[in-house]
Amino acid sequence: MKEIVRRALTGAVYVILLMGSIFLSSDAFDFLFMVFGLACLYEFKRIVRIKGYYIFIAYLALWWAFIYIVKESLPVMVLMFITISINLSLLVYLFSNRKERLSTFQNFVVAVFYIGGGCIFLTMIPYKDNEFAKFLIMGIFILIWVNDTFAYLVGRTLGRNKLYPAVSPKKTIEGSLGGFIFALIAAYILAPYEPYLSLTQWMILATVIVVTGSLGDLLESKFKRISGVKDSGAILPGHGGIWDRLDSLVFAAPFAYLTLNIFSYVS
Description:
With about 270 residues, the protein is mostly helical. It contains nine helices and four strands, in the order H-H-H-H-H-E-E-H-E-E-H-H-H. The protein has helices at about 1-25, 25-50, 55-70, 75-95, 105-125, 135-160, 175-190, 200-225, 240-265, and strands at about 125-130, 130, 160-165, 170. Strand 1 and strand 2 (about 130) form a beta hairpin. Helix 2 (about 25-50) runs antiparallel to helix 3 (about 55-70), helix 3 runs parallel beside helix 5 and helix 7 (about 175-190) runs antiparallel to helix 8 (about 200-225). It is globular. The protein starts with a helix and ends with a helix.
């Protein structure tokens, strides 16, 4: 009971912090995810045992360049292509039987583009036609939270078949399907309140976020399993580290950004 209360209180503080930054100002949201990115990198660095601080310098330089300096679409598309390519290569790593650690150089690339690039694209998503689309980014957070919550609840009550026991023995196919169905229901409810996306686009976006977010969750589990740790950190009582909370969003962000750009192109 104490564990449930602790998780609930920590989760409430986390949600209030996110929602507060969104409705306070775009600068507050940008700053929060710059800090979250640094926290995720610190936890990743500790897990894969990378020495030095050059990862933080590379991330901050990339974040500053693409959030405040780069305005042209071509460099953004190049960064998106690189980030998605790294993520797809990580899926190969996820589903392989490889159990040894990545090299120092590979971990550096993964840190900068998988984690750093993911936080950058998550920060870029709310900006639409020079406006800060508060409800759009809030809706994306809600989709992830609904998927995670109901995947856990459905898996706990109805789960029988393991999803990928070699990496995450507690996750089930039933839980994943339950989370996906409830995320689609959430997208249906959110659609009337967001003018930028139609109902069909919300459903497609929810599918992209749930599928890629679930893969991102499994990917973090593989990194932790190979390193022999349970949580990426302990900053969030009952939840683990920042990376534990953002693993789905960080991996899904560039795919969501690509999907939203396709919507803009075809609409």
